[in-house]
Amino acid sequence: MKAARAAIAFTVLAACVVPPSARGARPMVTDDARIVDARACQLETWTRRNNESTEYWALPACNPSGNLEITVGGARTNEAGETRTTDELVQAKTIFRNLEEGGLGIGLAAGTIRHPHREQKTGWPGDPYAYVPISAAFAEGNWVSHVNVGASRRSDEGRTVATWGWGNEVRLRPDLFFIPEVFHSDPGRPSYQVGLRYWIVKDVLQVDATYGNKLVSDANARWFSIGLRILTPPLLR
Q1: 3-class DSSP assignment, residue 4
Q2: Cα–Cα distances in Å, from 65 out to 76, 80, 180?
Q3: How many CB atoms lie under 10 A from the CB of residue 71?
Q4: What is the value of pTM for the model shown?
Q5: Model confidence pLDDT, tens digit, residues 58-77
Q6: Which residues partner with 149 through β-bridges?
Q7: Dist. CA 17–CA 185, nearest whole Å
Q8: Over the chain, what is the mean pLDDT?
């Protein structure tokens, strides 16, 4: 547990000193170099409460081939008394090196996300993106750190922006994890998020809760989220 406490202190400090200037297993935005088990599926769903809106997300994913995870989902947002579809996402992800083999994992993810309320002229294919997730395990697996480096195309603006993230999973006990991260996926300052992930039924049912905000920002950009993750046994043939 000394290693876990040291990891917590290190990651929180790092998130605070990153100068102003990606999607993993809930509740992280920074992705991990892991995918759903072969022929299995998962559902990640969560509610995110922003200052003036509430988002309702659902991202089902399956791995039909053994090393290719396909995610198709999106979000509906309630704002000013109106609820509408605001995000539609399609993504494919593969792994080149498994995290379990030597404590280092490397993968590649690519996809597109469409914002119907914003992209009135472009429609599909939306905003294509790609990134490389890298994960490394420390302290006998009690601390796993994830780094993402990638790019996203802003179709309505006609420009490509760099994206990055650094996230961490710190095991507090067998069923409870502390999740701090810092990431940059939108214009302006990077964002940070801290939260807890808890296994109700190990490797089957998980809940989480987070708080996030822009670095060096006021309360207008903050958010709270609560989520649920369900994993299935292999069921695809």
Answers
A1: helix
A2: 30, 43, 32
A3: 20
A4: 0.85
A5: 999 999 999 999 999 999 99
A6: 132, 164
A7: 18
A8: 86
